[in-house]
Amino acid sequence: MHFLLAVQLALSVCYFSLTKGRTDHDFLRKQDLEMKEQELEQLRLDREHFKARLETLQADSGREKEEKLALRQQLNEAKQQLLQQAEYCTEMGAATCTLLWGVTSSEEVVKAILGGDKALKFFNITGQTMESFVKSLDGDVKELDSNENQFVFALAGIVTNVAAIACGREFLVSSSRVLLDTMLQLLGDLKPGQCTKLKVCCFWYLRTSWALALSAIPSAGCYWLMLMSLYNVSINLKGLKYISESPGFIPLLWWLLSDPDAEVCLHALRLVQSVVLEPEVFSKSASEFQNSLPLPRILAMSKSRNPRLQMAAQELLEDLRALECDV
Fold it and tell me: Any signal peptide, and if so, which residues (predicted)?
């Protein structure tokens, strides 16, 4: 009897255990299923969220592309307008300054210009324009008849004509030394044979008293105009002193004498002669002259087939001998 009760109790315990285990397992499965459903719902919500964000970003990107396209078109139009305005200003500047170049051969016109309140600003702008022009070359050769060339040449020609008159030289030496410094710098920056026309005008500007008309300028290049201008200014003793005291002036003269263009060498010789014939100026640079004088080059030019170059070189050699230089 006791044995049967024990067996019955054991069977009851086993049944209860099996039933309880199945219930716990079902509960866990249900709980896990609910979690999976929650995760799936969260993923669905995340997908909808990111999809909405993607659509928003795509719309924004489309608008930005359209805006960039419109801005690029506006930029191209602005560049084209700026280019047209620059071409117009250059063409207008070339025409105006060419006319002004011609009329400044009159001393009365030069005096009237210098008597105005815009003269100093004009010469400052002239120096800046010439400097920009030379820097833009970078070894390139611009067409001689281009508006840009004519504009710069005309500006340099105006300066040359102003420097051809005593009051003009005095004005430039006293009030526009920045322009003188710019021209001296540009003469050194230009390569031999480059822009010969402009070089000579800057040189002549510092020395001679001749008025220069447009037709008188040869078509050799940029050097001419700068050298003529420097050549003009050096007639003024104060001007000669100023440029001769500029750093690197003597080496610049010797460097110009190595230029392949005969006119550049001719005006360089004349400026050297201006220094040699002015005792007060020459005394300060006599030692440097004698130590660095390119005598073989000057002797070669004294035998040149170019009669003007030959004569200028021979005259310089005679002046140097008179000063008892080692020639």
Answer: 1-21
